[in-house]
Here is the input.
Amino acid sequence: NGRLAEEFGGIDQSDTVVSYLPDAHAANRLFVHYQNHLHGIQITTVADMTQVLPTLTRLHPTAFLGVPRVWVKAKAGLEATIADQRPLRRALADWAIGVGRARARARSAGQAQTVLDNARYALADRLVLSKIRARIGLDRARVLVTGAAPIPVDVHEVMLGLGLPVCEGYGMSEFPIAATFNRPARIKIGSVGPAAPGVEL
Here is the structure.
């Protein structure tokens, strides 16, 4: 399980990660501490769960394990920020996020994107989505994982729409932690993905 990072394109000592879950949480050991032992990644430990999102905006980690509660709070914060914008900026943000969500749904369903779809997304990304990723501190993130509980479908869709490849997985501390997980190249919304290497279901 400690070598699962290879399924995400690899990880090395240049990578940074935030640790905030209890160390008794097997996923925290797998995603943070084992990766430090195996690859020398840099760990920033946050003792207070309320400081996770502010830490992301300061650190801009390259890898992050977010339990669903963190993604739900990120989405709520984003919506509150957009609601406070002037009408034109709010309309632009809503349009861009809508374009991103449509792309996420299509990719999840395995539907090909047209040239127009790709152009529309590229424009939305340049004008809005890339700025949102930077604002929440995940603009450098390559490896993003969620688990421990189901992530709400609408939350997952928004995160994918922002250009954040959040991969949902399933596992338990009672067996080798990760049993199934989506890979970045094929994320299916509402699914915990196919089996991890060496796992039979």
Q: What stands out?
A: The CA atoms of residues 21 and 28 lie 6 Å apart. The chain has six helices and six strands.
